[in-house]
Amino acid sequence: MKPKNKFQQRVVEVSNKLPKLTKKQVQWGYDNIIEHIGQRTDKGKITCTKCGHSWQGKGYLVDTLTECNCPNCKTRLKVKTTKKRAFCEYYYMTIMTACEGFQVMRTIMFKYIAKVGHLPEYTHSEVMQRWIAPDGKYATFARLRQTMGTMYIDSWIFHSPLELRNESSNNKFCVNVYDRIGTGTIYPKQKLIPELKRAGYKKAFYNQKPLDLFRTLLADSRAETLIKAGYTKLFERIMDIGWKNIINYWQSIRICIRDAYKIEDATLWCDYIDNLRFFGKDLHNAKYICPTDLHAEHDRYMRKKAKADARQELEKQLEKEAEYKEAKAKFFGLMFSDGLISVRVLESVADIVLEGKLMHHCVGGYHSKTDSLILSACIDGQRIETIEVSLSQLKVIQSRGICNKNTEHHNRIIQLVESNIPLIEERLAA
Question: Model's pTM, two decimal places?
Answer without folding.
Answer: 0.72
